[in-house]
Amino acid sequence: MAGLALGAVEARAQAQDEIVLGGSIPLTGVFAFAGVGIHAGIQDYLKLVNDEGGIKGRKIRYVAEDTGYKVDASVAAFNKITSQNKVTLYYGDSTGFAKTINPELERKGTMIMAGASFASELNDPKKFPLQFLPGPDYTEMFGILMRYIAKEKPGASVAFVYSDTEFGRDPIAPSEKLATELGLKVAEKIVTPPGSVDVSTEVLKLRRARPDYTIFHGYVLAPIPEFIQQAKQMGMQSRFMGTFWSMDNSMVQQMGEAADGFMGVMPYRYYYDKEGTSPMLDKIRQMRPEYQSTAYMQGFLTAMLMTEAVKRTLDAGKELTGTNMKASLNTIKDFDTGGIVGVPVSIPGNSLPVGRIYRFDAKQKQMLPASDWIQLGK
Amino acid sequence: MDWLYIFEVSLAGLGAGALYALTGVAFVLIYKATRVVNLAIGEILMLGGYVFFGLVAGAGLSVWAAIPLTILAGAGLGAVVERALIRPMLGESPISVFMVTIGLGSILAGLVELGWGADPLRLPEFIPNTPIFLGEAYVAPKVAYGALVAALLIAGALAALRFSRGGVALRATARDQGAAYSMGIDVGRVFSLSWMAACATAAGAGVIVGAIGGISPTMGIFGLSVLVVVIVGGLDSVAGALVGGLLIGLVEALAGSFLGGEYKLLATFSLLILILMIRPYGIFGTHEIERL
């Protein structure tokens, strides 16, 4: 009897000791292709940490709920998870959720949050003091792409093709400004209604503009392949580029013929990338012998950065409050991600402004590096 | 004025419109016979795309064997849905039946996600890919062939409605159920037949739409744009679906290229309001339509 009671006390002590990473994860719905990868990535990284005894002996427990990529379901999941657990870290699934939950996050002041959104708006430490982006924001992604373009072909003309959604419109206005600064010409901006299937009229418009480079944003797959195919048939010579969410290797493979030469910006290394030493990628390949998506890498790195912030806060002997953890996160400078990102990373503000240009090689059926790592602000 | 550009844009718009029209026909067939607004038609279209994908990529069938099988599967689904879900709702308020079809849509999207996962997929290339030029004007080959097939299917549907026994029975039932029944027409079978024909059409449309834009569990949204088409054309008129589809396709294309993509939906819905103000029952609709 006494032993039983003791066991219960011990269990409670352990429960108090553990650190909880909560998550509103889109395991179903339009964003499920990413949510499934993110979910696995977070779990795998936490497993690695816990197998080595956790952070200063404290294990990390992952509590996730499916949201279907709906803001109300996301908020409900947040309320449920935070009321049943003492949550220190949180993963949110969308820009909408990140903005909605922000006041509550600040009121609670007990956690830091990151998520699947790379919205430029979130990259503002004043407005979103307890959040961060585990990569460049969408405007920074355009910045990386256009720096590459300006170097490859000074004075080139570019076209932006984007979906008429918050996601799609995000980087357009500031990127136009940046293009002028870099000496590039924005030849055309084409916006497509969300969920549109047929893009023939848009391709006709693109042909009239004759851009050297075309950047797609706000899509995952459709309508990019059809767009490229028709443009190529009309004899267009433009190079086609994408941003993070349309850059997963299995996604690009599905573009068929259109994939050949498709380029884009990626802050993480691909699963199959064996260049140099990358202990973390080796571990991932060991745990999961089959290809893992870039969304997986995103979840994996997010968990890594979050636990690093916790570790640094505990090392400094400070309490695990949101402000303390965010301050610790911002001390991350030239941090080695074990090969997930190809260069040491720093988080001076709310984002990780680094990325590399990759190009799809039709023979190897893989995205391969087309540039060095490009770090903004350096 | 760049006439070639306008001509090319109009052709592209008509091509897209043909697909709207085809899916619109699926809406109309069901509404005409059974007075049910089937909001799941977009999801049935999606399922058609996935069945085709499964048959070709999964079972390794040739494309030309897979297309008829997909259409048959659509017909089968229509028969099952009508018998199991819609027939028992006979006599319930239209809103209830309407809700059943919304639920059916969610179930189909969920099943597809369970079976094939949530990732967007591309159908194997089977539509000829050589660029088509009408004079100097470029037409995207997939859109052109898609429109051609849609036109043939719609012509087939019109002919069947006019000349076949089933078509006559369907029109009779649509005109007056009681009279049709007393003349010995098996109204239950007509209901079943209309669902089968509509779902087969939708499944076929799914193959074409999927070949152009790829497939994903969320492609059912396409059905929603088609709802606009049939409301404009008239919910119970096949000719209305045809004209409405082409009209909406054309308006979208012109608005998209001369005003900008963000005006596409604005133009479409402005047209919808305008038509509803002038002709509340759609361009070719009959007046007794029940509004939901």
Automatic annotation (TrEMBL), chain A:
Cited InterPro entries: Leu-bd, Peripla_BP_I
Q: Would the keyword Signal turn up in this protein's UniProt record?
A: yes
Q: Which domain of life is it from?
A: Bacteria
Where would I find the Leucine-binding protein domain in this sequence?
Answer: 19-340
Sorted keywords for this record are: Signal
Membership in a protein family: Belongs to the leucine-binding protein family.
- Write down the PANTHER family for this protein, in alphabetical order: BLR6548 PROTEIN
Q: What is this protein called?
A: Amino acid/amide ABC transporter substrate-binding protein, HAAT family (TC 3.A.1.4.-)
Query: What is this organism's lineage?
Result: Bacteria, Pseudomonadati, Pseudomonadota, Alphaproteobacteria, Hyphomicrobiales
UniProtKB/TrEMBL annotation, chain B:
**InterPro entries, per database record:** ABC_transp_permease, BCAA_transport_permease
What's a Gene Ontology MF term here? Answer: transmembrane transporter activity
Q: Which UniProt keywords apply?
A: Amino-acid transport, Cell membrane, Membrane, Transmembrane, Transmembrane helix, Transport
Which membrane topology describes this protein? Answer: Multi-pass membrane protein
> What cellular component GO annotations does this protein have?
plasma membrane
Q: Which GO terms describe its biological process?
A: amino acid transport
Q: Where in the cell is it found?
A: Cell membrane
Q: Which sequence ranges are marked TM in the entry? A: 6-29, 36-57, 63-85, 97-118, 138-161, 193-215, 221-251, 263-284
Pfam families (alphabetical): BPD_transp_2
Determine the domain of life of the protein's source.
Bacteria
Q: Which family does it belong to?
A: Belongs to the binding-protein-dependent transport system permease family. LivHM subfamily.
Name of the featured protein: Amino acid/amide ABC transporter membrane protein 1, HAAT family (TC 3.A.1.4.-)
